[in-house]
Every structure is written in C-alpha cells, then in structure tokens.
Design brief:
Blueprint lengths: L1 H8 L1 H22 L7 H18 L4 H15 L8 H11 L4 H19 L11 H81 L5 H30 L13 H17 L3 E5 L9 H21 L3 E6 L6 E8 L13 H12 L3 E7 L2 E9 L3 H9 L1
Parallel strand pairs: 1-2
Antiparallel strand pairs: 2-3, 3-5, 4-5
Helix pairs in contact: 1-2, 2-3, 2-5, 3-4, 3-5, 4-5, 4-6, 5-6, 5-7, 6-7, 7-8, 7-10, 7-11, 9-10, 10-11
Length: 395
C-alpha cells in the first residue's frame, strides 16, 4: 500500500511503472497473436517482468536479479519490440529510490549479465547479438544515470526548501527582536519624559492648591508651570504616536543633536528641577560634550530619571558629578540622600531598568543602589574622541 501511494505521488515513479506495464502488455499481446504467439520464452519474460515490477516498486534488491535475468533472456532469444525495455524500466525504478552505490552496483550486475549472455563461449550455436548487448548496456547506464539525476534534483529541492524555511524563520525572529527592542525603546522614552513632567505637574499643583487663597500670583505661576509641563508631555507623546502610526518608509531618522544644543537642554533640565524645589549641585557637566550624540542623549535621560527619583524620594537635594574622560569612558554620577519610607509609593523600578538598558546598549556599565551616603547612580558612557570634539566645539 505504501509503495502504491509513493508511485502515485511521484511522477517519475509513475512514468517508469507505466512504461514497464505497457512493455509487458505488448509482450503479453505478442504471446497471444502474431509471429511470437505461444512462445514459452515470451511468457517467461512477461511473468518475470510482472514479478520484477512489484519488487522494483518496493526498491527490493531482488528486482535487480530479475532485470539481469530478463536482459540475458533478451540477448539469447530476442522477444518482440517493447519487452526489451522491461529490464531498463525495473533498473530505473530501483535506482530512483536507492543510494548511489546500490544503483551503480545494480547497473553493473545487469550489464555484466547482458555481456555474459552475449559472449558466453560455452553456448555454441547462439546468435549472441553484440548490437543488442550494446543497446541493453547503454540502456542500463542511462537508466541508472537518470534515476540518480532525479534523486540529486530532489535532494537539491529539499535542501533549498529547508534553507528557505530557515531563512524565513530567521527573518521572523529578527523582526520579533526588532519589535521587542523598539517597544523597549519607546517604553524608556515615555517613562523618562512623562515621569519627570508628571513630577513637575504634581509639585506645582500642590503649590497652587496651597496658595490658592493666600497668594493668587503664586498659584497662577504654579498653574503656568503645570500648563508648560502638560504641553511638553503632549508634544513628546505626539512624537511617539507619530512614529507608531507611520509606516517604515515614512519614519525619518532622527537628526543628531549637536553638543551646544544638548548642553542647553541639560541646562533647561536642571532649571526645571530647581523650579520644583530640588537643589542640584553639578560639577563637570562640560565633560558630557566629549560624548557622541547618542551617548549625550542617554546621559541626559539618566540625569532626568535620577533627579526625578531624587526629588521623589530624597530630601530636596542632589549632587551631579561628571568625571573627565578616562580610558575611553566618561563617568556620570548622581547622588542624593535616601531614607527608606514605610508609606508611599516605592515606584515600579522601570526607571532604573530603563537607565541600565540605555547604558548597556552603548557598551557602558551601570550601577544604582544605596550606599553609606545615600543613593548613588553611576553610569560609564563611552567617550568619542574628546580632543577632536573640543577642537570642533571651539572652532
């Protein structure tokens, strides 16, 4: 049953089987009518061919013996045209499913049997038919070659399909990885920007509420700050949503921010924290100009998140230190007093995770945690040729 299904699903096997069946039908018809009617040898050829066909469909080695015997009978007593192809068809079906060595060995057995029958010195008086022997040997070589060629083509197709499946799987994994990385990047941007602005909104809302009756001017300034922080949040959310809604071809790469503009943004960031009551002492901020644009952006976000945590959990003060470039790295440190609180929100911890991911993505190192003097955030960011950067900045 399995052999029948294999023959149906394989056009080459079906074609070979049909060719042998047609040749056997011609032989059977010739054994009934025509010049060879009643030939015992012809009926033997037909019977052996039918048995060999069943064996060849199963790729049995016995089919090779049948093919060799049929070739020898064809040389010693030529049958009608058509039956000479039975041996070649059986050999083709065998070579179609067996390894190369087995197919070549089978061809050698059939060719050897043919030559032995044609040039047997112990069978005098026979018309050995050297031309017929040459034809059958040629047919044998052709059937083995075609069968192995079909196998090689199948192996190539299977290997190519496997390679394409692996390539498709690799691309799917790469797309999934890019999507995950983009989601993490957007989550970091949202957290870093929104957390700071919401802290500003919270502080100025409390100031406006506390001075609503006593000082309308203070309340109005506080509400103005709330409006400004809200606008900033909406602008940054608009940028992120625009990226999410746009197709890949519509998304333009972000233009790099130059060092003076980045320095101005850092200054505005520190002023915004001063406006909500956080006293920030900073040393060595100019060393941040030695960083590449992407590293400066990461440093600004680390400052933003660290100072937001200092304002939320500290005592109203923070100290920022930026060390000169050393060993190819610029070290940024933010320290604030920290006392564990029994009440209130302890935060989600996503800010620290986001800072660590930013630094590691740039090949730097990151550490955050309490020490003897409070809570310390330290990030080592790779510097980008500080001497050259200094000359370009001064120029």
């Amino acid at each position: 049953m399995r052999s029948v299904s294999w023959t149906r699903s394989d056009p080459w096997a079906a074609g070979g089987t049909l060719a042998v069946a047609v040749a056997l039908a011609v032989g059977a018809l010739s054994a009934v009518v025509g010049d060879h009617a009643g030939s015992t040898t012809l009926w033997v050829v037909v019977a052996l061919g039918a048995a060999g066909l069943g064996l060849a469909v199963r790729a049995s080695a016995s089919a090779v013996a049948v093919a060799a015997l049929l070739a020898a009978l064809e040389i010693r007593d030529p049958a009608p045209w058509g039956t000479w192809a039975v041996a070649g068809g059986l050999l083709f079906l065998f070579a179609l499913r067996r390894p190369r060595f087995d197919a070549i060995a089978a061809g050698a057995v059939v060719a050897g049997g043919t030559l032995l029958a044609a040039y047997n010195p112990y069978a005098p008086g026979q018309d050995h038919g050297s031309v017929g022997a040459f034809g059958i040997v040629t047919l044998t070589a052709a059937m083995v070659g075609v069968g192995q060629w079909v196998q090689a083509q199948r192996r190539y197709v299977i290997a190519e399909l496997g390679r394409r499946r692996q390539e498709a799987e690799r691309r799917r994994e790469e797309v999934a990885r890019h999507v995950a990385e983009e989601r993490l990047r957007i989550a970091r941007e949202l957290h870093d920007s929104v957390a700071h602005h919401l802290a500003v909104v919270s502080v100025h809302t409390n100031v406006a509420k506390a001075n609503l009756d006593s000082s309308r001017e203070v309340s109005r300034r506080a509400l103005d700050e709330v409006q400004a922080a809200t606008r900033s949040v909406m602008e940054e959310l608009g940028v992120v949503l625009g990226v999410l809604r746009a197709s890949e071809s519509e998304v333009a790469p972000a233009a790099p921010v130059d060092a003076p503009a980045d320095a101005a943004m850092i200054g505005e960031l520190l002023e915004s924290f001063a406006g909500i009551g956080l006293k920030v002492d900073a040393e060595g901020l100019d060393h941040l100009l030695a960083l590449a644009p992407v590293a400066r952006t990461a440093a600004r976000r680390i400052l933003q998140e660290s100072l937001t945590n200092a304002q939320r959990y500290g005592d109203g003060g923070a100290h920022v230190t930026v060390d000169p470039p050393a060993g190819g790295y610029v070290t940024l440190s933010v320290r604030n007093s920290w006392v564990p609180r029994e009440t209130g929100s302890a935060g989600s911890g996503l800010g620290l995770v986001g800072m660590e991911e930013r630094v590691h993505a740039l090949g730097g190192t990151f550490h955050a945690g309490p020490d003897a003097k409070g809570f310390l955030v330290t990030a080592q960011l790779p510097a980008a040729a500080p001497r050259r950067t200094a000359k370009e900045t001064s120029g």
